[in-house]
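Lecture notes, unit on protein representations.

Consider one protein chain, 294 amino acids long.
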Amino acid sequence: MPTTLRAMKIEHTYGEWQQLQNHLLWCYDHLKPATTTPTEWQKITGHNSAWLVREGWAELRCDGLLYRAGKGEWLLAPPRTRLQRFSTRVHLLSVAFQSQWLDGRHWYDQGLPVVVPGREGPSLEKTGGRLARILKQIAPNVDGSIQQVRFDEHGFLDLLRALPDWMEAYVRTMDACGIRASRPQALDDRVTTAQRHLKTWPLDEPLNISHLASTCGIGRRQLERLFLSHFDTTPHRYLEQLRLQTACSALRQRNAQIKSIALRLGFGDSSHFSHWFRRWTGSSPRAFQNKLLF
């Protein structure tokens, strides 16, 4: 890891920092089930991943380049679209998380992927290992997304205390690699109001764009124009992305039932849900669910 390059410290107001949202998606530290051949290339997008390879290897294809981490190395993956695969026998400390500004841009994206020797990122291993131990204690049977996992307030607060330590270790590693974070974008108050309503919109109900616009004190067309200028998408597609994130999170649960997921998201039956999911991801829910999760 280059030590001569250091990213310039970026200062924001407290209000701007409040636009940054960090969420843990999953974390584990164990040997994955062995396979006879390396796992197939998996197409992943939407979140940052960090793997410390304790045994075996991990590979990424991103932006036309191949990145490989072996034993004792970290492979830090970007949130943009990538292909990933792993050796037949692999032991990983794996941390998956989302770190985004309110406008949807990821905090760290450009400059990744990067391979970092484990000895040069001891705080990553310490804080990531702590997250893995907490999750193993409060959700011992979970080997995937924690978004739909139930645990009590004590477990939640344990994770809430541990995640900032991981994020600080991650930021220090990015700084040492010379990788700069993105900046927050100034948002129209009417857009943030609409965004807040969309994030709490019942996912089993269709979007009433006229009602949403009225809660923001503007017309439908003006709301759509503001969304396009701030997020490069429409309110409807924004809600569909939230629905897709929930679907993917639920499917990562080993025993998840596709029919129940479909009903929870407002689809009348599994076939309609499968058609919608394939249109967005290029994969059926069953195929997505059957892939090994790393």
